[in-house]
Amino acid sequence: MLSLEEAQSRAQDLVGAARKAGADAADAIYACNASTNVSVRLGALEDVERSEGEEIGLRVFIGQRSASISASDMNPATLGTLVDRCIAMAREAPEDPYAGLAPEDRLMRRRAPALDLTDTEEPEPAAMRERALEAEDAARSVPGVTNSEGGGASTGRSQVALATSHGFVGAYAGTSHSTWASVLAGEGAGMQRDHASHNVRHLEDLDDAEAIGIRAGQRAVARLNPVKVESGVMPVIFDPRIGSSLIGHLVSGMVGPAIARRSSFLLDMLGEAIFDSGVTIIDDPLLPRGLRSRPFDGEGLPVEQRALIDRGVLTGWLMDSASARQLGLEPTGHASRGGSGAPGASVTNVHMEPGDASPGDLMADVKRGLYVTELIGMGVNGVTGDYSRGAAGFLIENGAVAHAVSEITIAGNLRDMFRTLVPANDLHFRYAINVPTIRVDGMTVAGG
């Protein structure tokens, strides 16, 4: 793994070589990920794995023609060949009137903000093994747990460096630590599985391994003996660990490329109230220790906290430079990219602000409904907003969680679902996308 300074220099050198070879403009991005993973099963060490991969990508522009190429070999001779190939590819590419680097006057010029993304502590594999064993042992100790899919612990580091031919250069790094456990409860055909995990930037913020294991065991046992559910229209309450998927569908409909292609269920809804006024959704790339925090976007633009939904109103699209040009708008600092290909658009740390009601209050008036803890499949149409997914969780009867349920399908349309969505007051920051417990009325439920 190159140091941040070396990675930044390598990206700058690649851009400089592309310009000398005839490119009108160019950018280069370096990315590296290194991780150590330890897994155990039934109280014994199962695997210790160390992986490290790095990639550098080059994008060049010849007039309105562009091409990109990437390599995992950092040898200067290999990178020289990379430049020649990319230039040749760009000369044969079709013209794209929207292609180009980000506007020069929008580039981040200030010092990169300190986001506290890197931890100096790197646990030894032996310590990670003990943490994994503790998590699995705790899960297996829960009465009703009968088997284990294992437990694990990991640590990792990632680094990114970006350089452009019109004056931007920057780099940042981040670390990660995680613990998980996955177990089964019951016997034979009635077996049920569930899991628990936690992932953080700094080891000191990681949940206790025993607590993670107990959560996994209790979740698996709670799913035993599921009952059948009669089909009908009813309220559905989403557990926070899966309610974030609804925000994922919202974001997919807000990205600039989808709007430019006119392939989003949110078309023509800019500035309209698509949620109740009690719903506000924030994207915060500058959250200290955030799992997706970053000091600049994939094109070198500054980033800032932004309300995606402000008191129910859709505030704007998420733009990279190309889609912004196509729509006659400005980029928003949401560009994201890998080693090859043009940038796309994405969010960072997203959360839905909590409401006023407790989770108990949300279900207090529900005569018959569902509390969903797992979603299966991806039956969502991003163009129409039609939504249909397999689900599992618990029946709600007379305002209280009752029997476990499985093999059910919940369906609706995202526009209708967003209009009736109500957040509870139990927001906790544990993931890249965080939501409180969510209630959505009027969904169609098909029993197994």
From TrEMBL:
Domain Metalloprotease TldD/E N-terminal: 34-90
Positions of the Metalloprotease TldD/E central domain: 121-224
InterPro entries: Metalloprtase-TldD/E_C, Metalloprtase-TldD/E_cen_dom, Metalloprtase-TldD/E_N, PmbA, TldD/PmbA_N, TldD/PmbA_sf
Chain ranges of the Metalloprotease TldD/E C-terminal domain: 231-447
Biological-process GO terms, alphabetical: proteolysis
Family stated for the protein in its record: Belongs to the peptidase U62 family.
Protein name, entry field: TldD/PmbA family protein
Organism for this UniProt entry: Sphingobium amiense
